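*** Query protein ***
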Amino acid sequence: MVSGNRPSARRRVYGSYRRHVVPVPVIARRHTQQIGRNVVFGSMNVKSLSKADELLLEFRDRSLNVMLLCETWHDSDSVSVRRLRADGYRVVERARPRPRRAEASLGVNHGGVAIVAAAGIQLTAVDVGPQPTTFECVAARVSSVTSTCIAVVVYRPGSSPVTAAFFTELADVLDRLSTFVDPVVLAGDVNIRLERATDPRTVEFCDLVTSYGLVQRARGMPVQHQLSQRRTIALCHRLTCFR
């Protein structure tokens, strides 16, 4: 016989009354929710990394995490690159090789591409094969918490005509990128009049990148070229972990 004054078994937990037990919230969906952080990318034709102050202002004003830069006009040992690294930024760069006769020159080294990441973002250089002859490119794995992607910057000089070799070499790079399981971000300046939808070069370029699953993410005209034609690109592939 059980006394009516005795606490029931349902009210006892390891010998203590229920009023002494602290409830612990349970998150039922903790393993189904996406883990990571938002990473904001920016793409610019900077025309010289020596404008470091302006670049850092862009980082802060636009709350950017990663900048994909072309026409950096730098050498691999440039003061501008060293300054960015000293300020805590990570840099993966490729300067345009100078001709042997001009290796010691102090003149501007046009061209050049770079990927710059703010503190908290990891950058690791990625090899995409032999450097193309019709455009410049650099690639890096961008890592943040548990998310990663491959970022690539391309720059095709406007002083050179668009040739079949350009599309062949770009396809070679895209072939190599397609072997990575990570999402891909491709940005830069190809100097093709992308606003001319029926131009044969625009059609060929768009068909090529589309065939690799890349989607144009740039919206409207580039900020620095509001009165000019659209030649810059911002493409991404399977970009689900970086929103």
Notes: The helical segments are 52-61, 79-86, 164-177, 200-211. Residues 164-177 form the longest helix (14 residues).
